[in-house]
């Protein structure tokens, strides 16, 4: 990311909706995905706070950089990217349908702020902190969206930011729009605005636009999804953002590219091995460092970021020895050993229950090494197109052309016979925490598959070389 600048640039280098007068007063950063991102004065008041600057110390992809060295981009630049795309999206709707939709400056500023602040409450290590660590140490449900909302209030109060209370209220509603929380009745006016940043209605939003392009680029992967086509052709019909029917394959590429990233990067077998180790390290350190207590107070939460690993690694305290040893194992590449995996058969997905280490050790045959629950780690990986086992296109509305006001979904049989007939994968992976137990755990895992499905569902046997490995 570039430093803040306010150089005099020619207005033609800026998008048409920003006047030359605004441009001279704007600061900007140069982003490696979107080019120059121009920052308005109100958003700068939020950016220039310790709570927002914390996002610089949160890697967007958590621990994936230990496998993909280029994946070191942060939630700070992602948040600026979502801010920029949110401002472009709402401005395009205003340009095309402004008088019809009644979009005003208040709406534009609200959407931009929601894009900027949507991840301000995110935890360390991508989603590991929220999905793997906290459920094992907290009795109550916790989400980064809810913490983002609390931090927005904290920033406003702590830094005395003058802002319309109604705007802040709507910003927080937009941040929560993708969660299970239903929107308040008062939010039904201009409901389409809530689809821009975090779309709980059908999953198409600028948050995905930014992280898909940014993550692909950082990991050196190709990406043939072009969000610009959707931004240019979107249209509001019946208070809902709809897309031109000819772009249905572009929409499908959005969800397919996201699924590819999950399979290739986010849930890479070694990424998951490292995540399992970091989760164990955090659990062992929690009693001493009280890591989970930071989630209870927004004024303290901003102090928690990815550097917690370095804190543990360099601490001399005996109470942190087990955690420290796990982190040192990661540094020396002595990881939990991947034993094998299988994809849950399609006809078993509906009633699938997560596999546990207990399931594996109970499947071992008599004789040989006696496995313990703490010897085994299991990762249950769900990969889908955002709607579980359902086709995401079912919830998306399309229109034929700009002369028509009719909106409609596109059924499966009208799309393409080359597209998938199943929209979810469930992959069960098993790891050995000790290299010398790979053989015993692999055998128990095969027995578990035979007992559960009557077949070995894994594609191939665990390599003998891996089974024979010793410390």
- Give the amount of beta strand, in percent: 5-15%
CATH topology of the domain at 40-268: Hypothetical protein af1432
Order of strands across the widest beta sheet? 3-4-7
Mass-distribution shape: globular
Give the C-alpha Rg: 24 Å
Q: What is the class of the domain at 40-268 in the CATH system? A: Mainly Alpha
- Name given to the CATH homologous superfamily of the domain at 40-268: Hypothetical protein af1432
Q: Largest sheet at a glance? A: 3 strands, mixed
Domain HD: 75-212
Protein name: HD domain-containing protein
Pfam families: HD, HD_assoc_2
Describe the structure.
The protein contains 18 helices and eight strands. It has 471 residues and is mainly alpha-helical. The longest helix is centred in the first third of the chain and has 27 residues, at 75-101. Among the domains are: 40-268, Hypothetical protein af1432; 339-383 and 426-471, Alpha-Beta Plaits, CATH 3.30.70.2760. α4 (75-101) runs antiparallel to α9 (206-219) and α12 (269-289) runs antiparallel to α15. Residues 75-212 form the HD domain.
Layout of helices and strands:
Blueprint lengths: L19 H6 L1 E5 L3 E5 L1 H7 L2 H4 L21 H27 L3 H13 L10 H6 L10 H15 L6 H11 L30 H14 L7 H7 L1 E3 L2 E5 L3 H19 L2 H21 L8 H4 L6 H7 L6 H11 L5 E7 L13 H5 L14 E9 L13 E2 L24 E9 L5 H16 L10 H4 L4
Parallel strand pairs: 4-7
Antiparallel strand pairs: 1-2, 3-4, 5-8, 6-8
